[in-house]
Write a structure and sequence with these properties.
With 264 residues, the chain is of the alpha+beta class. The chain has helices at 2-29, 36-43, 58-68, 79-90, 125-129, 147-151, 176-180, 206-212, 222-226, 251-255, and strands at residues 100-104, 157-160, 163-166, 186-190, 196-198, 232-235, 238-241, 261-263. It contains ten helices and eight strands.
């Protein structure tokens, strides 16, 4: 009886060996070779996966850098440090990395504006906005419940006096806060000498702005008239600064009656 089982076992063993050999040969023939530099570049990135580089995540960006030759300085959270590491891995020259920071386009703190209601629902800005545009009198302003602070990987944002505030020294300009703010109050700007920004986002007429916020832009155009470099214009009742033209002279900030033009 024992001998009756020997032949089938030998057949199955032979088939197994043949299958193993065949799979090994096929895997070698159809092997997709991966560039080891892709993993090295990925390791040089901070793994925030914020998408600020324009790609879905750090791994996707690393692949694009090695395979498609995209710029090596697109990682904002990694900054110059990551750019230098990537250049070293690829054997290329280091591309300049311009420091950037987020800033809040609102000056509506507790002393400048008042709440119009007490919101008792889910304590998030997105939830509050669904109720009459938020709890504040200004529907354009910071709701102040900290959605932006919660997603910041560097703890660079805090809520102070009812208003979101960014610490430029800690901010890595990943842009996660920009995506999170339901009122689109946060923007990313290059850091530079005397960089001026408009800390307001209201497009209402000046009279309406004054009624809800003491620190809002009233669209008076005084700043526009004071600027000698054509860098600031009032459009749709709100002042906008062209950073490429701005020299940081500060005349617009000094002339602004509402003091909404500030230096980062």
């Amino acid at each position: 009886m024992f001998e009756a089982y020997i032949l089938p076992v030998l057949i199955f063993a032979a088939l197994g060996c043949a299958a193993g050999i065949l799979l090994t040969v096929v895997s070698k023939l159809f092997e997709v070779k991966t560039d080891e530099r892709i993993q090295a570049v990925n390791d040089a990135l901070p793994q925030v996966n914020c998408g600020a580089c324009g790609y879905s995540g750090c791994a996707d960006y690393a692949n694009a850098v090695v395979v498609n030759g995209v710029a090596t300085n697109l990682c904002k959270p990694g900054g110059a440090k990551s750019a230098e590491k990537i250049a070293e891995i690829l054997g290329t020259s280091v591309m300049e990395n311009v420091p950037q920071t987020a800033y809040v386009r609102c000056s509506g703190n507790c002393s400048a504006t008042k709440p119009k209601m007490q919101f008792e629902g889910e304590q998030t800005c997105k939830a509050a906005k669904r109720f009459y545009g938020g709890s504040g009198e200004c529907i354009y302003g910071c709701i102040g419940l900290g959605d932006c602070a919660k997603v910041c990987p560097e703890n660079a944002i805090c809520i102070a006096d009812g208003l979101a505030a960014v610490n430029p020294k800690a901010c890595v300009a990943c842009g996660l806060c920009v995506k999170e703010c339901p009122n689109n109050l946060i923007a990313i700007k290059n850091m530079g000498s005397n960089l001026h920004v408009v800390s307001c986002s209201s497009h209402d007429m000046g009279k309406v702005v004054r009624a809800v916020c003491k620190n809002g832009c009233i669209g008076c155009k005084i700043c526009e008239k004071k600027c000698e470099f054509d860098a600031i214009h009032v459009e749709n009742n709100l002042a906008e600064i062209d950073q490429d033209k701005c020299t940081g002279c500060g005349k617009c900030a000094a002339a602004c009656p509402a003091k909404v033009i500030k230096i980062i």
